[in-house]
Amino acid sequence: MPKTRDTEHLPLAGLESVFMDLYAQPGHLFRRAQQIAVSVFYDVVGDAVTPIQYALLRMLYERPGIDQKTLAGLVALDTVTTATTAERLEAKKLIVRHVDPANRRQKQLYLTDEGKALLASLVEGVRRMHGELFRDFQPQERDALINLMHKFVDSNNERSRAPLRTAGTVARKPGPRRKDE
User: Fold this and answer.
1) Where is this region: Disordered (predicted)?
2) What is the value of pTM for the model shown?
3) Is residue 181 part of a domain?
4) What percent of the chain has pLDDT over 70?
5) Cβ atoms of residues 53 and 39 within 8 Å
Protein backbone atom coordinates (compact mmCIF):
# COMPACT_ATOMS: atom_id res chain seq x y z
CA MET A 1 0.00 0.00 0.00
CA PRO A 2 1.55 3.34 -0.97
CA LYS A 3 2.24 5.80 1.80
CA THR A 4 -0.11 8.68 2.01
CA ARG A 5 0.49 11.98 3.66
CA ASP A 6 -1.87 10.88 6.47
CA THR A 7 0.25 7.85 7.46
CA GLU A 8 3.69 9.42 7.17
CA HIS A 9 3.45 10.89 10.67
CA LEU A 10 2.43 7.60 12.34
CA PRO A 11 5.20 6.16 14.54
CA LEU A 12 4.84 2.70 12.91
CA ALA A 13 4.79 3.90 9.32
CA GLY A 14 7.55 2.25 7.33
CA LEU A 15 8.28 -0.40 9.98
CA GLU A 16 6.19 -3.15 8.39
CA SER A 17 9.33 -5.04 7.39
CA VAL A 18 10.45 -5.46 11.02
CA PHE A 19 7.18 -6.93 12.30
CA MET A 20 6.79 -10.68 12.36
CA ASP A 21 3.87 -11.83 10.24
CA LEU A 22 0.87 -11.97 12.59
CA TYR A 23 -0.05 -15.39 11.22
CA ALA A 24 3.38 -16.75 12.19
CA GLN A 25 3.29 -15.47 15.77
CA PRO A 26 2.99 -18.33 18.28
CA GLY A 27 0.54 -16.48 20.52
CA HIS A 28 -1.79 -15.80 17.61
CA LEU A 29 -1.57 -19.42 16.44
CA PHE A 30 -2.28 -20.76 19.95
CA ARG A 31 -5.27 -18.42 20.31
CA ARG A 32 -6.61 -19.60 16.95
CA ALA A 33 -6.03 -23.24 17.92
CA GLN A 34 -7.99 -22.66 21.16
CA GLN A 35 -10.75 -20.91 19.22
CA ILE A 36 -11.00 -23.84 16.81
CA ALA A 37 -10.87 -26.46 19.59
CA VAL A 38 -13.72 -24.76 21.47
CA SER A 39 -15.79 -24.46 18.30
CA VAL A 40 -15.29 -28.13 17.44
CA PHE A 41 -16.10 -29.07 21.07
CA TYR A 42 -19.51 -27.41 20.77
CA ASP A 43 -20.12 -28.74 17.25
CA VAL A 44 -19.24 -32.35 18.09
CA VAL A 45 -19.66 -32.80 21.85
CA GLY A 46 -22.61 -30.44 22.27
CA ASP A 47 -23.45 -27.61 24.60
CA ALA A 48 -24.53 -29.44 27.74
CA VAL A 49 -21.33 -28.14 29.35
CA THR A 50 -18.54 -25.79 28.38
CA PRO A 51 -15.02 -27.08 27.74
CA ILE A 52 -13.94 -25.71 31.15
CA GLN A 53 -16.89 -27.38 32.86
CA TYR A 54 -15.96 -30.62 31.11
CA ALA A 55 -12.38 -30.32 32.42
CA LEU A 56 -13.65 -29.86 35.99
CA LEU A 57 -16.07 -32.77 35.71
CA ARG A 58 -13.35 -34.97 34.24
CA MET A 59 -10.94 -34.14 37.07
CA LEU A 60 -13.62 -34.68 39.73
CA TYR A 61 -14.26 -38.10 38.23
CA GLU A 62 -10.56 -38.90 38.64
CA ARG A 63 -10.20 -37.23 42.06
CA PRO A 64 -13.52 -37.18 43.91
CA GLY A 65 -13.59 -35.08 47.07
CA ILE A 66 -10.78 -32.70 46.20
CA ASP A 67 -11.08 -29.09 47.25
CA GLN A 68 -11.63 -26.19 44.84
CA LYS A 69 -8.07 -24.85 45.16
CA THR A 70 -6.56 -28.23 44.31
CA LEU A 71 -9.04 -28.64 41.46
CA ALA A 72 -8.02 -25.24 40.10
CA GLY A 73 -4.38 -26.28 40.10
CA LEU A 74 -5.09 -29.63 38.47
CA VAL A 75 -6.81 -28.02 35.49
CA ALA A 76 -4.64 -24.87 35.45
CA LEU A 77 -7.42 -22.38 36.19
CA ASP A 78 -7.46 -19.49 38.61
CA THR A 79 -9.37 -20.10 41.83
CA VAL A 80 -12.08 -17.52 41.08
CA THR A 81 -12.93 -19.10 37.71
CA THR A 82 -12.93 -22.53 39.31
CA ALA A 83 -15.23 -21.40 42.12
CA THR A 84 -17.74 -19.71 39.80
CA THR A 85 -17.66 -22.67 37.41
CA ALA A 86 -18.22 -25.05 40.34
CA GLU A 87 -21.20 -22.94 41.40
CA ARG A 88 -22.68 -23.29 37.91
CA LEU A 89 -22.09 -27.05 37.91
CA GLU A 90 -23.73 -27.27 41.32
CA ALA A 91 -26.72 -25.25 40.06
CA LYS A 92 -27.02 -27.76 37.19
CA LYS A 93 -26.96 -30.55 39.82
CA LEU A 94 -23.83 -32.07 38.26
CA ILE A 95 -21.67 -31.70 41.37
CA VAL A 96 -22.12 -31.21 45.09
CA ARG A 97 -19.85 -29.20 47.36
CA HIS A 98 -19.48 -30.13 51.01
CA VAL A 99 -17.58 -28.25 53.67
CA ASP A 100 -14.41 -30.18 54.49
CA PRO A 101 -14.72 -31.32 58.12
CA ALA A 102 -10.92 -31.12 58.51
CA ASN A 103 -10.79 -27.55 57.17
CA ARG A 104 -14.07 -25.66 57.37
CA ARG A 105 -12.78 -23.00 54.94
CA GLN A 106 -12.51 -25.53 52.12
CA LYS A 107 -15.16 -27.31 50.14
CA GLN A 108 -14.83 -30.85 48.86
CA LEU A 109 -16.35 -31.46 45.45
CA TYR A 110 -18.04 -34.61 44.17
CA LEU A 111 -19.84 -35.58 41.00
CA THR A 112 -23.52 -36.34 41.44
CA ASP A 113 -25.09 -39.33 39.71
CA GLU A 114 -26.35 -36.85 37.10
CA GLY A 115 -22.81 -35.51 36.68
CA LYS A 116 -21.40 -39.02 36.25
CA ALA A 117 -24.08 -39.87 33.70
CA LEU A 118 -23.48 -36.66 31.75
CA LEU A 119 -19.72 -37.21 31.75
CA ALA A 120 -20.20 -40.77 30.50
CA SER A 121 -22.47 -39.48 27.73
CA LEU A 122 -19.74 -37.07 26.57
CA VAL A 123 -16.96 -39.65 26.16
CA GLU A 124 -17.82 -40.63 22.60
CA GLY A 125 -18.24 -37.00 21.55
CA VAL A 126 -14.84 -36.11 22.98
CA ARG A 127 -13.28 -38.99 21.02
CA ARG A 128 -15.00 -37.77 17.86
CA MET A 129 -13.84 -34.23 18.58
CA HIS A 130 -10.22 -35.40 18.78
CA GLY A 131 -10.68 -37.21 15.49
CA GLU A 132 -12.12 -34.07 13.91
CA LEU A 133 -9.31 -31.85 15.18
CA PHE A 134 -6.67 -34.21 13.77
CA ARG A 135 -8.50 -35.44 10.68
CA ASP A 136 -5.83 -34.06 8.31
CA PHE A 137 -2.90 -35.39 10.37
CA GLN A 138 -1.00 -38.63 10.06
CA PRO A 139 -0.77 -40.43 13.43
CA GLN A 140 2.92 -39.52 13.79
CA GLU A 141 2.12 -35.85 13.03
CA ARG A 142 -0.63 -35.85 15.65
CA ASP A 143 1.68 -37.44 18.23
CA ALA A 144 4.49 -35.02 17.37
CA LEU A 145 2.19 -32.01 17.77
CA ILE A 146 0.81 -33.28 21.08
CA ASN A 147 4.34 -33.95 22.35
CA LEU A 148 5.50 -30.49 21.28
CA MET A 149 2.48 -28.89 22.93
CA HIS A 150 3.30 -30.78 26.15
CA LYS A 151 6.88 -29.58 25.93
CA PHE A 152 5.73 -26.00 25.36
CA VAL A 153 3.26 -25.91 28.26
CA ASP A 154 5.61 -27.81 30.59
CA SER A 155 8.52 -25.46 29.88
CA ASN A 156 6.34 -22.36 30.29
CA ASN A 157 4.04 -23.55 33.08
CA GLU A 158 5.41 -21.19 35.73
CA ARG A 159 4.86 -18.20 33.45
CA SER A 160 1.12 -18.83 33.43
CA ARG A 161 -1.22 -16.79 35.58
CA ALA A 162 -2.79 -20.12 36.53
CA PRO A 163 -0.01 -22.72 36.44
CA LEU A 164 -0.78 -26.40 36.45
CA ARG A 165 -0.41 -27.78 39.98
CA THR A 166 -0.47 -31.51 40.38
CA ALA A 167 -0.60 -31.86 44.18
CA GLY A 168 2.83 -33.37 44.65
CA THR A 169 2.99 -35.26 41.39
CA VAL A 170 4.80 -34.31 38.24
CA ALA A 171 2.71 -33.12 35.31
CA ARG A 172 2.30 -35.78 32.63
CA LYS A 173 5.26 -35.67 30.31
CA PRO A 174 5.00 -36.04 26.56
CA GLY A 175 4.42 -39.60 25.55
CA PRO A 176 1.85 -41.97 24.14
CA ARG A 177 -1.75 -40.88 24.47
CA ARG A 178 -4.06 -42.80 26.74
CA LYS A 179 -7.05 -44.45 25.08
CA ASP A 180 -9.52 -42.20 26.91
CA GLU A 181 -7.88 -38.95 25.75
Assistant:
1) 157-181
2) 0.79
3) no
4) 81
5) no
